[in-house]
Amino acid sequence: MTGPGETGTDQAEEVLRPDEPAVAEKIDPEAPWQRLSWRMLLVDPLGSLTRLLPLFLISLWLGSNRSNYWFETVVISLVVLAGLLRWLSTSYQVGRTHIILKKGFFSRQVVTVARHRIRSVDTESDLFHRVMRVSILEVGTGRADAGKSGAERFRLNAIDTALVDPLRDELLAHRRALDPTLSEEDEEQWGSKYGEDIARWRITWARFAPFSFIGFGVLFSLWFLTWQMGDMHDRIMDLAVVEGTVDRLDSLGPPWAFVGKAIAVWMVAGVLAVITYAIRYGKYALTDHGQLLYVQNGILRRKHQALDKARLRGVELRLPVYLRMLGGGRLEPIMTGTKKGAAASTLLPQAPIGDVRRVAIRILGDETPVTVGLRRHPWKAARRRLTRGLLPFWIVAGFIILYRLDSGPSADVWVRWGIPAALVFFLALSVDRIRMLGHALLPDTLVTSHGSWAAKRTILEADGIIAWTVSQSVFQRSARVATVSAATPAGGGVYSVVDMDADEAWVLAEALTPGITDVWKHDGAGDGRVSPSMGVRPE
User: Fold this and answer.
1) What whole-number distance in Å separates Cα of residue 149 and Cα of residue 20?
2) Measured between alpha carbons, how far is residue 365 from residues 124, 315, 359, 422 in Å?
């Protein structure tokens, strides 16, 4: 998508060799060349050594009786040398038409970005950066930013923090030309310090953290580290509180001992999750800057992201059942040029569902896609939710029966309690999947919802859809349902309407993308057109 005065054929960002003629053409002879802050000579080695800390601890533990620490000395020396070479070989220029970054000591690279193509200027800083008063600044063009490697990105690590706001304002000043309604005061306030607040982090949101997998990931990492260090793991397990808890739970007997240990592990993981959540999303704020959405979060590693509204193609409300039970959810953008998956920009972390919907409505400018009731799919789609949802139950029940056959009557309690509990659990998930399944067709907007454990409600603009796919498995064909997938260059790339009526599949695609079925030939027996796989679609 191009703005006024732009052409789709211009290169937004280029990686060139220093000796190419194109580099000389883009260098501004009046603009000075600048270096990164000298303080990066401290920040870069400290950050690298912190990431290598587990390796150092294991090495020191394995060699606790040795007097020669050549391994640690060599690694530290290499890290410091790498930081020095990076500082010496990195320079950048902010010219009138382009910004240019030269980097690389052994493999020299030059990254050029046309200033009128700049769509975002993101910053982040961890604890070491803030102590040394430097920041990481990255320029985004919104065109395939997610696919770029680190060598292809215009990323300055690290520049003086005092230079960040003036540089951001200078690089984004051209955005005023794309919005004539902005006043001079708006232009002066363009940047990170001003804007209309949409949402800010509240400490009460931390109550949702234990009901996520963050804590279990941290707990597993700590367990693996202590297990590698041998006696540290033994010391933890020999603590009086740990031994006492384990003995008390074992005295309950099966299956309650297992349930009690699972709850104890969850409680420990919950505490770690609250701490991790607070560190990751503390000081979160979402502000509106006219054409930009500005997101900042983090305590130890503070991140600042500017998201261009022109690249926004919708939003996705993440509503997993374990958060919905507490009235919570999460909001993700569907935006071109952003990273997919866990690295994607988050508009709102785990928060009350009321705040999630409010922010979604505020960003979309319309409450209808967020609140509209969904059209239910055929009863055969509900039957598929039940049959597929209960498949894990039969696996769990099979394991319990095998355990009973192997252990004898002492395992009867697992059959008496485990099988009914598993049945209720998976049946409840199946019913929830039925409740969440549906879609709505609005003018120029597709709303679709499915899932339970990882439920989500997707709101996608029709203008962002570039292709349609209708697919059917063997079992879907027998049930006369189909999955309709909308392909888009934004967000996750593909968003699906699952198990809708097969006879309406291409009708939905035609409604949102008029003319998509015109390539089909008439069957000669009426006004209908023949779909390659779905049969006849009436006009």
Assistant:
1) 21
2) 29, 12, 10, 43
Find the domain containing 254 and state its range.
Answer: 205-281
DSSP secondary structure string, 412-433?
HHIIIIIHHHHHHHHHHHHHHH
Which range has the worst mean pLDDT, 235-239, 336-340, 478-482, 534-538?
A: 534-538
Which residues are bridge partners to 5 per DSSP? none
* Amino acid making up residue 523: D
Of 392, 415, 430, which marks where a domain is finished? Answer: 430
Burial of 166 (0-12, 13-18, 19+ CB in 10 A): exposed
Under the banding of pLDDT at 50, 70 and 90, the label for residue 148 is low
Domain assignment of residue 151, yes or no: no
Same domain, 383 and 475: no
Q: What is the pLDDT of residues 283-316, one digit of tens each?
A: 888 888 777 788 888 777 777 777 778 888 999 9
Does residue 406 sit within a domain?
Answer: yes
Q: Phi-psi region for residue 159, left (φ > 0), alpha (ψ -120 to 50) or beta?
A: beta
Residue 280 pLDDT exceeds 80: yes
Query: What is residue 348's three-state secondary structure?
Result: strand
According to DSSP, the residues that pair with 497 across neighbouring strands are 484
- Assign 3-state DSSP to the chain and report helix, strand, coil percentages, each to 5: 45, 25, 30
